[in-house]
Amino acid sequence: MNSRLPRLPLILLAAALLLLGGLWALRSMNPPVPAGNLAGASIGGPFTLVDGDGRTVTSATFDGRYRLMYFGYTFCPDVCPVDTAKLAAGYKAFETAEPKRAAQVQPMFVTVDPARDTPAVVKAFAAAFHPRLLGLSGSPEQVAAALKTFRVYANKVPGSAPDAYLVDHLAVFYLFGPKGEPIAFQVGKEATPETVAAMLKTYVR
């Protein structure tokens, strides 16, 4: 069963609208940043996952780059597509205003549902929002270890069929530095493309 395809036009529409909204909002590039400071927090660290082409990636793969991370799943009916669109729109707006600084940032979508979100699935999902958004999956063990490292809660909620379950999870944007150090976060439901871009403007040097 491929239940993702009927939602794809809606996902793309959400992404397009949020991209336009983010670009408009960043005319001044001076919005408030409703972000929590993570400096010194015990969060993040080494991880091993798999990219959309089946290649193993680790935390060391991104040394020298900031990491803008969101944990979600592609079968999510509402929150994850909207949050991913916010992330992509905020990053796109920052990229347009500050291309050299934006090139130092690697945006990532990490699945919390490796059983359904194969590397190919997360690659296609991420590419629908921004060409630089990297979709990451892995074995159940690899994903579980990453969730523990980044303190992301995720719990399967049974649905009407074995493959129709939902996943209750922490919806948050994380920003980590070039050495993987924690910098800041924004709660998904409170974030906008404007605030995501402002967070990047504030912390990416």
From TrEMBL:
Disulfide bonds join 76-80. One of its GO terms (molecular function) is metal ion binding. It comes from the Bacteria. Cu cation binds at residues 76, 80, 169. InterPro entries: SCO1/SenC (IPR003782), Thioredoxin-like_sf (IPR036249). Pfam families: SCO1-SenC. SUPFAM superfamilies: Thioredoxin-like. Keywords: Copper, Disulfide bond, Metal-binding. The keyword Disulfide bond applies. The keyword Calcium does not apply. Belongs to the SCO1/2 family. PANTHER family: ELECTRON TRANSPORT PROTIN SCO1/SENC FAMILY MEMBER, LINALOOL DEHYDRATASE_ISOMERASE DOMAIN-CONTAINING PROTEIN. This is SCO family protein. It comes from Sandaracinobacteroides saxicola. The lineage of its organism: Bacteria, Pseudomonadati, Pseudomonadota, Alphaproteobacteria, Sphingomonadales.
